[in-house]
Amino acid sequence: AENMYFFSDLALTLNEPEERVAPTDSRLRPDQRLMESGRWDEANVEKQRLEEKQRAVRRRREAEAVEALEEGKDYEGYIPLWFERKVDPMTGELICVYKGGYWEAKDRQDWSMCPDIF
After folding, report:
1. In angstroms, rounded to a whole number, what is the distance separating the alpha carbons of residues 88 and 66?
2. Structure pTM?
3. How many domains, the chain?
4. 45 domain residue, yes or no
5. pLDDT tens-place string over residues 11-20
6. Can you provide one Gene Ontology molecular function annotated for this UniProt record (predicted)?
7. CB distance 97 to 84 below 8 Å
């Protein structure tokens, strides 16, 4: 642990790669993998690329929403694959609740519904 910034064993293993996970799993982030292998400059370039890709997707969604509004159409926007937003009946806060499907997709190794985020 002293060689790994005094993180606990659990914290050290949370980011360990795992096989057969969704291509959207954060452990597959290419910038993170580069950083962990000490390739800082490449990691920073990759991080910038990923951030710009996310910004472009957000701009596209915003433009689609404006276009739908101008045409009087409904626009659903982004819908998470594995979770749905609900109001917690106890607190009244908006929470995300697992809606199923991930483990079944993992068993089938069918990730066709996953967006290309990296």
Report:
1. 30
2. 0.76
3. 2
4. yes
5. 888 888 899 9
6. cholesterol binding
7. yes
